[in-house]
């Protein structure tokens, strides 16, 4: 190559290189240094030469801990709810582990239980596998529907009619987490627990209007440690009917203390480890006492206030964020149970769905929310009337219930207080009507139910009283639902305002 040609080639390469370098420089991301002052929702955050000031450091750490406390509140709600039931059952009725509280004459509307109803014979017991080892639940034959849930309100098993033994009765054996002892080979449906704390609830289904027979059958349920299976002592049953108690999760520091109690009595689940890390700077740590300082107390107390507000919004408006909510086309009725019994989907854990359900109710199970005909139950609820307005206790309403309600066992309609999510407290001390009642029926077999502060003349038997100044919402239950609930052949219309 001639010297001149070489020089030209070299010059061309240098120019091209400079052009490329210039283009790269123009396209390179611009470095943005930390601003000296950043405006945020918690005020102005100041940085000096890139470093946070002492005031900014304290503000940011408080905000980190506050945000984590709020999310921990929402995450913990089902566990604190069950912990509260256990504490109140002990305080009000002296119920120890395995003892059963029974609503032998139904639950009083003056008691606060999340969406309990006063047409069902309930009985419940608390179980602690860490203290008792394997525990046996012996269900008698007959019309009993039951649930075993851990304190996260995840279903371990259905018992009674929807369970593996149906109406024949049978024994269930719950093993503690990581249990390596001897397990009986026959005679039990063996269940492997992942927690120490469980709650067993059974409902006696009233057949042929014989309430006493349903009560006596429930009282044949037995719960005892496997170690006592050779000669189990009789279970203690205590009536909870007529009692006035509050089983709702409490506000303030009591909420966190109950969470701390639960955490310290149960293994940490793998998918909860991040929450445990979030709670640590707030003074809640497994194996250590709960002694929050003044800063932590302030954050925890504020978090329960906003957390409760978030739970309330998620209950009443959360379904707008979900899919598959509508029970009947073009109505405001939606399915109550939008969370799976495991609280898991293929790709995520149901955080919002779990809060939506457990803020307003208790217990999950494959048989609660069953989407097919057969044993079990399904519920629908509405938070707005036909015109899209919230329910107002000073107004009067009518619900037309078409004939042939698709429920093999029975159906019920219960009104709940919008503030406590418990049965509406009214002058009747009765918040429900059901197919057990002697209701006025229309010529075509349909029934009109009425809600309002005053009974409509001639329809007193079909009326549930409301209270002026108090919001409420209706829940319709189908016990042993029929196919008509799911195939569109039967439809519950919206509640209408009587003008």
Describe this structure in words.
- This protein is globular.
- A six-stranded mixed sheet has the order 8-7-11-5-4-13.
- It is an alpha+beta fold and 499 residues long.
- Helix content is 26%, strand content 23%.
Percent of residues in β-strands: 15-25%
Q: Give the strand order of the largest sheet, numbering strands 1, 2, ... along the chain.
A: 8-7-11-5-4-13
Tell me about the largest β-sheet.
Answer: 6 strands, mixed
Order of helices and strands: HEEEHEEHEEEEEEHEEHHHEHEEEEEEEE
Q: How would the global form be characterised?
A: globular
Spans of at least 5 consecutive residues whose pLDDT stays below 50 are none
Indicate the multimeric state.
single chain
Helical proportion?
25-40%
- Overall structural class, as computed from helix and strand content, comes to alpha+beta
């Amino acid at each position: 190559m001639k010297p001149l040609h070489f020089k030209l080639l070299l010059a061309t390469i240098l120019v091209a290189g400079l052009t490329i370098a210039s283009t790269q420089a123009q396209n390179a991301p611009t470095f943005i240094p930390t601003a000296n002052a950043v405006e945020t929702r918690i005020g102005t955050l100041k940085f000096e030469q890139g470093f946070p000031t002492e005031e900014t450091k304290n503000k940011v750490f408080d905000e980190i801990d506050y945000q984590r406390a709020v999310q921990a509140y929402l995450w913990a709600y089902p566990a604190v709810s069950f912990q509260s039931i256990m504490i109140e059952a002990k305080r009000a009725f002296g119920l120890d582990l395995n003892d059963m509280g029974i609503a032998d004459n139904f639950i009083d509307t003056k008691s606060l239980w999340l969406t309990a109803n006063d047409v069902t014979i309930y009985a419940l017991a608390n179980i602690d596998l860490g203290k008792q080892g394997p525990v046996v639940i012996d269900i008698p034959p007959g019309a009993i529907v039951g649930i075993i849930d851990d304190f996260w309100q995840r279903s371990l098993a259905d018992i009674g009619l929807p369970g593996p033994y149906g109406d024949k009765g049978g024994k269930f054996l719950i093993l503690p987490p990581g249990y390596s002892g001897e397990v009986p080979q026959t005679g039990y449906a063996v269940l492997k627990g992942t927690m120490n704390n469980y709650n067993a609830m059974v409902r006696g289904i009233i057949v042929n209007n014989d309430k006493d027979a349903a009560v006596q059958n429930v009282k044949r349920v037995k719960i005892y440690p496997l170690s006592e299976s050779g000669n189990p002592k009789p279970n203690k049953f205590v009536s909870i009917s007529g009692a006035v108690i509050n089983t709702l999760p409490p506000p303030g520091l009591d909420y966190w203390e109950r969470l701390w109690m639960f955490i310290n009595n149960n293994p940490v689940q793998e998918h909860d480890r991040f929450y445990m890390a979030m709670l640590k700077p707030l003074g809640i740590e497994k194996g250590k006492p709960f002694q929050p300082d003044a800063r932590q107390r302030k954050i925890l107390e504020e978090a329960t206030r906003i957390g409760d507000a978030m739970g309330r919004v998620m209950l009443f408006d959360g379904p707008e964020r979900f899919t598959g909510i509508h029970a009947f086309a073009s109505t405001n009725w939606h399915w109550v149970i939008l969370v799976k019994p495991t609280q898991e989907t293929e790709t995520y854990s149901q955080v919002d769905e779990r809060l939506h359900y457990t803020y307003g109710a208790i217990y999950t199970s494959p048989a609660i929310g069953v989407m097919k005909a057969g044993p079990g139950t399904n519920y629908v609820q509405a938070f707005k009337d036909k015109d899209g307005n919230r329910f107002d206790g000073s107004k009067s309403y009518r619900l037309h219930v078409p004939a042939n309600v698709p429920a093999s066992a029975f159906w019920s309609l219960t009104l709940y207080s919008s503030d406590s999510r418990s049965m509406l407290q009214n002058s009747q001390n009765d918040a429900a009507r059901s197919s057990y009642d002697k209701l006025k029926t229309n010529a075509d077999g349909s029934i009109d139910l009425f809600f309002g502060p005053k009974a409509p003349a001639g329809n007193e038997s079909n009326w549930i009283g409301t209270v002026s100044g108090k919001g409420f919402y209706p829940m319709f239950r189908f016990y042993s639902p029929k196919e008509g609930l799911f195939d569109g052949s039967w439809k519950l219309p919206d509640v209408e305002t009587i003008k």
